[in-house]
Amino acid sequence: MSIPDDRAPLVEPPANIQASFGQPPAPAFAPAAAIDPNNPPWGIAAGILTWVGSVVLLILMATLFAITSIPKSILGDQEKIKQFLTTDPKAIFIQVLSFIPAHLLTLFIVWAVVTRLGKRPFWKSLGWSWGKGFGFWRSIALAIGLFLVGFLLLYFIGSVNTQFDQSVSSSRATSIVIAFLAVGTAPLVEETVYRGVLYSALHKKLGVYWAVIGVLVLFTLVHVPQYWPDFARIGVLGLLSLSLTFVRAYTGRLLPCFIIHFVFNGVQSALIIIEPYLPKSITGQEPKAPAMLISYLIHKLL
């Protein structure tokens, strides 16, 4: 993936040059100087609808995929269907797979809103470049710092089993897909939706303060069902969202947020992959969800 260079202006070639090569005129992009990620052409309504669309797609795809996994023998029995969808490894795997088309369709919605169906540049409109004081290595350092702070909080506060843990432990195939989603699609989709489209719209109309609060609330709210009733992990997610949004507000750019999110999720994905191979002598008991693994490692080290 190439990283746009803010120094390179987006200037459309003259029409006579395009015609000389026998090609139709290219889309009329706005000049680079006129593109400001904090002053987007879309408003709050478009930002909220993009967020709603991302949530609806997750629910709709999960429902459609889940229906295909329900055996005919239990149709009509709501209790058996509920138990089947939450405990059967194949059903859980199919529901996790539904995140892939949901994320791809969400990216299309984001592209349509940001570019106005191809009339504006996508990456530059979102601020996909390095901001002041935040380059590649500082972004990685902050991501690792947030990860360690989060797990220290989990260690001292404690954590409980959640729907996410049940999904990870349901089957090896499901845990691998979850690890892929955590780095392959989730950081890009969530950053473009929350700190790309949504934050920009709120910042433009309400200012930085309300934009940060709005994104924090909506980002955390969407993840609550997944981690309920683990208040510690919900708090860690809130800390992650707040930090990412502060970085977006400070730098005016989205790329540092994506790298931080990508690395934060990447560490968890690595733990998901290697966790089954860790001996009991390291974890102190049967391998548990990644959110608790480092707690046990720290406990052993101390």
Quick synopsis:
The chain is mainly α and 302 residues long.
- Portion in helices: over 70%
Whole-angstrom Rg: 22 Å
Tell me the series of helices and strands, N- to C-terminal: HHHHHHHHHHHHHHH
Specify the overall morphology: globular
Q: Flag low-confidence runs.
A: 7-21, 281-288, 295-302
Distance between the termini: 41 Å
Q: DSSP helix count?
A: 15
How many separate domains?
Answer: 1
Helix/strand structural class: mainly alpha
Described by strand count, sense and barrel closure, the largest sheet is: none
Mean pLDDT: 83
Strand content: under 5%
Descriptive report:
The structure is a single chain. With 302 residues, this protein is an all-alpha fold. The chain has one domain. The protein is 71% helix and 0% strand. The protein has 15 helices and no strands. Helix 5 packs parallel to helix 10 and helix 11 runs antiparallel to helix 12. The radius of gyration is 22 Å and the shape is globular. The chain starts with 14 loop residues before the first helix and ends with a helix. The C terminus is likely disordered.
Write the layout of secondary structure elements.
Layout: H1 15-20, H2 44-69, H3 78-87, H4 89-97, H5 99-115, H6 122-126, H7 136-157, H8 163-170, H9 172-184, H10 186-206, H11 208-227, H12 231-251, H13 255-274, H14 280-283, H15 290-301
Helix pairs in contact: 2-4, 2-5, 2-10, 4-9, 5-10, 7-12, 7-13, 7-15, 8-9, 9-13, 10-11, 10-13, 11-12, 12-13
